[in-house]
Amino acid sequence: MFYELFLRSFADGNGDGIGDFKGATKRLDYLAELGITGIWLLPVMKSPSYHGYTVSDFYSINPSYGTIEDAREFLECAHAKGIKVILDMPLNHTAINHQWFLRALAGDKSHRKKYLWLERPEWLEARRHWDNQGVWSKLNGEYYYALFGPGSPDLNYENPELREEAKRILSFWLSLGFDGFRFDAAKHIFDFSTERGKCEYQHAKNLAFWKEMTEHCRKINPDAIFVSEVWDDPDVVDLYSSIFGIGFNFPLAYAIKESVMELNPNRMVEALYHVMNRYFEDVLQYSSGIFLTNHDMSRLLSYMKGDKEKAHLALSVLLTLPGIPFIYYGEELGMKGEYNEFANEAQLEPFPWFELGSGPMQTEWKAFTSNPPYSGTSYEVQSNESNSYFSKYKNILHFRKNNNWIDSAKILEVKAENNILFISVESKGKVALIVHNFDQKTVILDKKGNIVLINGELSEQKNSFSLGRMSSAMIEQ
Ligand SMILES: [Ca+2]
Known about the structure:
Belongs to the glycosyl hydrolase 13 family. One of its GO terms (molecular function) is cation binding. Keywords: Carbohydrate metabolism, Glycosidase, Hydrolase. By secondary structure, the chain is an alpha/beta fold. The chain folds into three domains: about 325 residues, TIM Barrel (Alpha-Beta Barrel); about 45 residues, no CATH class; about 70 residues, Immunoglobulin-like, CATH 2.60.40.1180. The protein is built from 15 helices and 20 strands. α4 links the parallel β2 and β3. It is globular. The site of calcium ion has 6 residues, from loops. Calcium ion (CA) binds next to loops.
């Protein structure tokens, strides 16, 4: 079970209000106690942007986060606690102030070949798929390709020397002790056709690129972990996942949140046959990275309009499905944050350790807007209450930790009856029926095995059991 961690917002180790490696190292026990066995670290390289996705030196640590030695110590301490760490690696583009781009602008030939420059005026007509914006930016009278905006010029991996450079970058971080990578924007490496002069995902070329990169990494660490970010239909995601080993299942995230929001388990049944169809088969060559939210989405409690029962039900559904679960930092406290297409600061807020918004190791790099002091969200308040959002969330995480056999389980059957979702899963001869009550009232069901409460209310009678509203349980068969 992975925890997506934004270092800047987590724990401050040197008193400047900015989260860093020293602080996170001291908070590893907190993560281990949650049941976390992996960390996905958002980019930590030198960057002009607060989120770090535009990198200005791929071989450096952002000085705000500490030193290479601090990172090494963090990795060693994580490993000692049985936690693996993968690094977010945005190889698709650089920051505009990366030396490569600055030298390219100054006319240096070898650096110019690292980027894509406008060759034909008609290329200017190209538009990106999701919002019809242009993809060429102009600086010093020259147009360069920058799909995600002027601040992040795309790298041109047609250049074999650049592919070798990318391998050196990956070697650098693996030898420091990282256990693998989350590859950002994986389908965007080749997404502009120079033949047709328009934006087009070139999946075959992308897959060849990633095969080359992952094979290189596996020579250094045969057990390296890779996760791909591909927002697309399940068949496209599968193509990429077969190379990386784990692919984020975006359609599943939407399906769970929508079905719980609408309290419609039928929607979930329909979706599972579509977005988890491989799990109904026997052969599993790769895993789904299953999640509800990430740094590019509204936080769960904001999505659920503050309905805590729904948020816990959604987490329960997620953690009873096969795949590798990813939990976004702060979700366990019920942090809020609405996605805004122009800035994603709202869902990247400081982790509220203290109720008054400051205290030892509390990060304060930005003011709280969605999770203000005295809102009851803090770890300080919730960790001491057995009935808090945090305590319930943690119990659901512990359910999955104690039942991690579900990670590689097969789905035998899913159905919805009387507003109850039934999921039957099997792994190595072990079979369990999972029951999620989407209803507003308690239901009584037949008892056919040992019952484990996942979340909510449960009472057992001789031949039956009662499952409270919005509650979940597992029946071991
Ligand atoms: Ca700091």
